[in-house]
C-alpha cells in the first residue's frame, strides 16, 4: 500500500504544469497530507514562535505540530531551549499545550523530574544501577533567527538555514525581539489545505477586492501588475513608484538598513523571501490610518523604516517600528489549517496608555478572517470534480508558481 501511495503521489507531481496551480489531489488527498507532514514539517526548518514567548527563566511554551509536541523554554541561565515533550520513562506528555512557568519539568505520571537544561534529576524507584545520564529529554534542532525560533525535527536538518540566519542577523536583530512581549494572539482555523493558506498569503491579486483594511497601508503596485492593462496615467504612476522604490532602498541601505529583496524560492531547501517595503499613506505601520499604534517603539527606534517582511514555507512576518507581527501555519488535516498570529510590542509598552489594542490589531484580525473565508472557498473549489489546475497570472502570481515548483522539487528530493 505504501508503494502504491507513493506511486500515486508521484503521478500527481508529474501532472503539475509550470505556470499552473497544483493538481487537486495534492491539496485534498489524505496520503499527500501525511507526506507533506513528513517532508515539509519534519524534515525542513519550520517556525514555531517568537523568542519572547518565553521571556523569563522558567517560562515554557508547548507547541504541537506534525504529530510532535515541543517544549520551548528559557533555562536558569537565560538560554532558549527546545525539547520533545515526551517523558523518557513511558512517554507521557510532561506539559500541556500552551504556556506555563516551571522551576523544573515534572512528569505528572510518575514524577520523573528534569532540569530546565533537560537532564534527568529525579526518577524514583529505579534502582541504584539506573543511569540518569542516559535519560535526558530529547533536544530538538533549533535556530534563533533574529528572535524567531525555527526547529527541524529531523536529525539531518537542511544546512542552508545559515542563509536565513544571516538575514535574521542583518535585518531582524535591530528590532530586538528579546525585549518585546506578546500583546495579542489570534488563532484562526482555516478550512483548507495548508498550501492554499500559503498561496493566498503570497499574492495580493485578491487584496483590492477583499482587504480594504490592509489596503490603507499596502501599495497595490508592489504586488505586480500587467503594464498593458494600465491607462497612460497609471503607467506613469507605476514608473514614479518604481523610481521611488529604487531611491528609497538606496537611502535605507546607506543608513545601514538592508532592504533589497532576497529570494530563496527555488532550487533551495529552505524557502524564504524578505524585503523592506514602503508603507502607504502615513507610512508608519499596518494600522487603520497607517500611523504607529504604539508610542514605545521596538528596538529599531524609528517608525520611518517601512515594513520588513519575511516569509517561509509555514510562516510570514512583518517588522515595523512600533510593532511586529509573526504568523505560523500549522496543518491540522488535509482540509484544516491553524493560522496563529501574534502581535509583539515593546515589553515596556502598557495597553491603554501606550497603545489601544483594537487600533493595534484590527487590520490583521480582519484580514485573517477575510483570508480564512477565501481559503475555504478555494479548498471547496479544488475538491470539486470540475476543478482543473488554472493558469497563474505572470504579473501578480509568479510567487505561487515558484512555490508550486519548489514544492514538487522537495517532494521529489524525498523520494516521491
Automatic annotation (TrEMBL):
Residue span, Rieske domain: 45-151
CDD domains: RHO_alpha_C_GbcA-like (cd08884), Rieske_RO_Alpha_N (cd03469)
Coiled coil: none
Keywords: 2Fe-2S, Iron, Iron-sulfur, Metal-binding, Oxidoreductase
Gene Ontology MF annotations: 2 iron, 2 sulfur cluster binding; iron ion binding; oxidoreductase activity
Cross-referenced InterPro entries: Rieske_2Fe-2S (IPR017941), Rieske_2Fe-2S_sf (IPR036922), Ring_hydroxy_dOase_asu_C_dom (IPR015879), Rng_hydr_dOase-A (IPR001663)
Named cofactor requirement(s): Fe cation
Identification of the protein by name: (Fe-S)-binding protein
Species of origin: Paracoccus contaminans
Phylogenetic lineage: Bacteria, Pseudomonadati, Pseudomonadota, Alphaproteobacteria, Rhodobacterales
Amino acid at each position: 500500500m505504501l508503494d502504491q501511495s507513493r506511486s500515486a503521489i508521484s503521478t500527481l507531481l508529474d501532472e503539475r504544469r509550470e505556470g499552473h496551480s497544483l493538481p487537486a489531489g495534492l491539496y485534498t488527498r489524505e496520503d499527500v497530507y501525511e507526506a507533506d507532514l513528513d517532508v515539509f514539517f519534519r524534515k525542513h526548518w519550520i517556525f514555531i514562535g517568537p523568542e519572547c514567548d518565553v521571556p523569563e527563566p522558567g517560562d515554557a511554551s508547548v507547541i504541537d505540530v506534525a504529530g510532535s509536541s515541543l517544549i520551548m523554554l528559557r533555562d536558569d541561565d537565560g538560554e532558549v531551549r527546545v525539547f520533545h515533550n515526551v517523558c523518557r520513562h513511558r512517554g507521557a506528555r510532561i506539559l500541556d499545550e500552551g504556556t506555563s512557568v516551571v522551576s523544573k519539568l515534572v512528569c505528572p505520571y510518575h514524577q520523573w523530574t528534569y532540569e530546565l537544561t533537560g537532564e534527568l534529576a529525579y526518577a524514583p524507584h529505579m534502582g541504584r544501577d539506573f543511569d540518569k545520564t542516559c535519560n535526558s529529554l530529547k533536544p530538538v534542532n533549533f535556530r534563533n533567527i533574529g528572535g524567531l525560533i525555527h526547529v527541524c525535527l529531523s536529525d539531518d536538518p537542511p544546512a542552508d538555514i545559515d542563509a536565513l540566519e544571516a538575514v535574521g542577523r542583518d535585518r531582524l536583530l535591530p528590532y530586538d525581539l528579546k525585549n518585546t512581549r506578546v500583546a495579542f494572539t489570534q488563532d484562526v482555523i482555516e478550512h483548507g489545505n495548508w498550501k492554499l493558506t500559503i498561496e493566498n498569503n503570497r499574492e495580493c491579486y485578491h487584496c483590492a477586492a477583499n482587504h480594504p483594511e490592509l489596503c490603507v497601508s499596502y501599495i497595490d503596485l508592489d504586488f505586480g501588475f500587467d503594464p498593458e492593462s494600465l491607462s497612460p496615467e497609471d503607467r506613469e504612476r507605476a514608473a514614479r513608484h518604481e523610481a521611488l522604490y529604487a531611491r528609497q532602498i538606496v537611502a535605507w541601505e546607506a543608513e545601514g538598513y538592508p532592504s533589497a529583496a532576497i529570494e530563496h524560492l527555488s532550487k533551495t531547501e529552505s524557502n524564504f523571501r524578505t524585503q523592506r517595503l514602503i508603507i502607504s499613506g502615513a507610512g508608519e505601520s499596518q494600522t487603520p490610518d497607517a500611523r504607529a499604534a504604539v508610542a514605545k517603539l521596538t528596538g529599531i527606534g524609528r517608525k520611518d523604516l517601512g515594513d520588513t517582511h519575511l516569509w517561509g514555507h509555514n510562516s510570514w512576518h512583518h517588522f515595523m517600528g512600533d510593532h511586529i507581527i509573526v504568523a505560523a501555519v500549522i496543518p491540522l488535516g488535509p482540509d484544516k489549517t491553524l493560522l496563529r498570529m501574534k502581535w509583539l510590542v515593546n515589553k515596556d509598552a502598557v495597553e491603554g496608555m501606550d497603545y489601544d489594542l483594537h487600533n493595534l490589531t484590527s487590520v490583521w484580525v480582519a484580514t485573517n478572517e477575510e483570508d480564512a473565508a477565501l481559503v475555504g472557498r478555494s479548498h471547496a473549489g479544488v475538491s470539486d470534480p470540475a476543478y482543473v489546475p488554472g493558469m497563474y497570472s505572470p504579473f501578480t502570481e509568479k510567487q505561487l508558481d515558484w512555490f508550486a515548483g519548489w514544492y514538487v522539487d522537495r517532494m521529489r528530493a524525498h523520494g516521491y
